[in-house]
């Protein structure tokens, strides 16, 4: 079985090429080609034909092929359906902001976590993505649009901390100097709250932004909408978040999807404010995006405003997130493995 070359670190590549009798600078050249997004060894024009032939026998270069692309009429957001070498598919979203382009990538095909408001969760789990498959989503989007992506969010399909080792390797590769060189401060990772992995991540002291999908102020509501809460209840999760903020000195971003009559009452806002008091954090309120079959509706405007002011009065930083790409089902929680649209 050929090996996945784009998932190798520059150091591993150097060692592998040294074993083939190649000098270190050759590994550096190949590494740069891989991270510029080439899809075959033949595109590496400064590498001899003989070496390219040897490489093809031992390695393959993974890439994300475009199966479908949708462009939002409202805001230029682009949603891609990509396929990988085994035919497995994921979606990814490219967004344009004033400060540049952000790619929202998937880390798994499907997801095991089963959150009741999320389209990905409804579709079940297929497999983890490799580090190279995460990189490839960004590379194909750059190529297809002739742009450079400056920010990456791990908020597409899948739970990044349930694919921990591959995600850590992806982070190392995407931020490497000879790779895409996207700094950790330009990367956000979103988790539903896999507590032991939050501790593990904290101890790595990376400068990325951690987003935690909270979506409820107590165990009763959270266990109903997010099954992961039955394993890691809210206080255990918030304890891990406090540890994360203290260890990394980075502010945690809590995501809170506002669902009509589920988690948007005045009492919910007060309970949330009590729990978060004193923590280095920020709350992002998102009107829940509609996903067919869930039966959930967005909270009313007045409810959102009231919820926000309760948090503000308690001294908690809070914003309402702008929804991008809603006309093409490219918003949070709307990504699927198929072409089916609701
Ligand atoms: N698995 C990770 C990251 C991918 S989901 C996580 O859950 O954090 C990306 C974000 O979209 C998460 O904050 C998730 O809770 C949110 N989300 C899922 N379904 C949603 C919906 N229908 N409306 C709004 N946000 C949703
Ligand atoms: Fe998985 Fe995140 Fe969707 Fe929950 S919200 S099912 S963790 S992708």
What's the arrangement of secondary structure elements?
Elements: E1 3-4, H1 10-19, H2 24-36, H3 49-58, E2 59-60, E3 65-71, E4 78-83, E5 89-97, E6 100-104, E7 108-110, H4 119-122, E8 125-128, H5 131-145, E9 149-154, H6 164-174, E10 187-191, H7 195-204, E11 209-213, H8 219-225, H9 228-231, H10 234-248, E12 252-258, H11 266-276, E13 281-287, H12 301-313, E14 317-320
Parallel strand pairs: 1-2, 6-9, 9-10, 10-11, 11-12, 12-13, 13-14
Antiparallel strand pairs: 3-4, 4-5, 5-6, 7-8
Bound molecules: S-adenosyl-L-homocysteine and iron/sulfur cluster.
Iron/sulfur cluster binds at residues 111, 113-115, 118, 120-121, 158-159, 192, 213, 333.
Question: In short, what is this structure?
Answer:
By secondary structure, the chain is of the alpha/beta class.
Provide structural commentary.
The mean pLDDT is 95. The protein has 342 residues and is an alpha/beta fold. Helix 1 (10-19) packs across helix 2 (24-36), helix 5 (131-145) packs across helix 6 and helix 11 (266-276) packs parallel to helix 12 (301-313). Helices cover 36% and strands 21% of the residues. The protein has a 10-stranded mixed β-sheet with strand order 3-4-5-6-9-10-11-12-13-14. The structure holds S-adenosyl-L-homocysteine and iron/sulfur cluster. Residues 111, 113-115, 118, 120-121, 158-159, 192, 213, 333 line the site of iron/sulfur cluster.
